[in-house]
Design a protein that fits this description.
CATH superfamily of the largest domain: Spore Coat Polysaccharide Biosynthesis Protein SpsA, Chain A
Largest sheet: 8 strands, mixed
Distance between the termini: 26 Å
Number of domains: 2
CATH topology of the largest domain: Spore Coat Polysaccharide Biosynthesis Protein SpsA, Chain A
Helix content: 40-55%
Order of helices and strands: EHEEHEHEHEHHEHHHHE
Radius of gyration: 25 Å
Number of helices: 10
Oligomer: single chain
Strand content: 15-25%
Length: 314
């Protein structure tokens, strides 16, 4: 039985790389008869409309966004568009620059067939970025683990079965970070080891600032967990400060022991920590309440606010 496969690829000022990726996918899938392939390219507000050439063994559709929304939001819009407009059994999400290798895409699809009902992620076994970037990325994963209690070891290169796609597009968190949203959702997934490929053309747009914003997006998905941990941390500091202050006052007024001169400095420091911890707890509570009172952006229903015209490549 032929399965309907939709390949979602965001494109931002990367026409050359996108065409090279389509060539590679077309060559790789020409002998794979179990899929009827459609490619959805999401033009994320590129400076010039991507000039995409047709391929014989795949239908190509170009969805133009009215403005640049960013990588994660472009993917969320593409997923919502597919859910509503393109009947699919599976959705393969990958970047256009070549770092998500087509041969690994075939591995993910094979694993998806063996594990129906699961999202199949590509987990990077090796990377080609510089030492500095890899160091920043490692720090990001450590901070993410400390703040959320969860381990993240994958990104947006994945295969998504249709039943889970229909659920995922109603999670507002995919607007900020797809992988983080899937972690939070509790939807079943399995990671598969892959290698990061070499970029086809141009220069990677992921720098320190981009990585920082990407990390903040991932952490922001778990605002409830982070708020609760910050609140517990501030309450623990308040308790410690009160304990030290009461201990010093007890020694001074209820014992005959001599009080060293530095105890006044310690008491002042504890009072400062007490006040700052109290302010931190208030800030955390207001931050959480503010996040809960805001209207959620649901990609399944709100994605049309950013979509322009669609183009069939034939």
């Amino acid at each position: 039985m032929t399965a309907h496969l939709t390949i979602l690829i965001p494109v931002y000022n990367d026409t050359e790389a996108a065409n090279r990726l389509l060539d590679a996918l077309s060559s790789m899938l020409k002998d794979v008869t179990r899929y009827k392939v459609r490619v959805l390219l999401v033009n994320d507000g590129s400076a010039e409309r991507p000039a995409i050439t047709p391929r014989e063994n795949m239908a190509i559709q170009l969805l133009h966004l009215v403005r640049n929304t960013g990588h994660q939001k472009a993917i969320a819009i593409g997923l919502a568009f597919i859910k509503e407009n393109i009947p699919s059994d599976q959705v393969l999400v990958m970047d256009c620059d070549g770092e998500d290798r087509p041969e690994d895409a075939l591995i993910l699809l094979e694993q998806a067939e063996k594990n129906p009902g699961h999202i199949v992620f590509a987990r990077r076994k090796s990377r080609k970025e510089g030492l500095r970037f890899r160091g920043y990325y490692r720090i990001y994963k450590i901070v993410f683990r400390l703040l959320t209690g969860k381990k993240i070891s994958f990104g947006n290169f994945l295969v998504l079965p249709a039943p889970l796609l229909n659920k995922l597009v109603y999670y507002s968190e995919i607007w900020n970070h797809l992988a983080g949203a899937i972690l939070k959702s509790g939807l079943p997934y399995i990671p598969i080891d892959t290698h990061r490929g070499q970029r086809y053309a141009g220069v990677s747009k992921m720098n320190f600032t981009s990585l920082l914003l990407h990390g903040l997006g991932a952490v922001g998905v778990f605002i409830e967990i982070i708020a609760s941990r910050l609140l517990l941390f501030s309450l623990a500091l308040i308790g410690l400060s009160l304990l030290v202050i009461l201990g010093l006052l007890g020694i001074k007024y209820f014992t005959h022991k001599a009080i060293p001169g530095w105890t006044s400095t310690v008491t002042s420091a504890m009072l400062i920590i007490l006040l700052q911890s109290f302010l931190l707890s208030l800030f955390t509570i207001f931050l959480y309440l503010s996040s809960q009172s805001q209207r959620k952006f649901i990609p399944a229903t709100h994605y049309r606010d950013y979509t322009g015209d669609t183009e069939i490549i034939a």
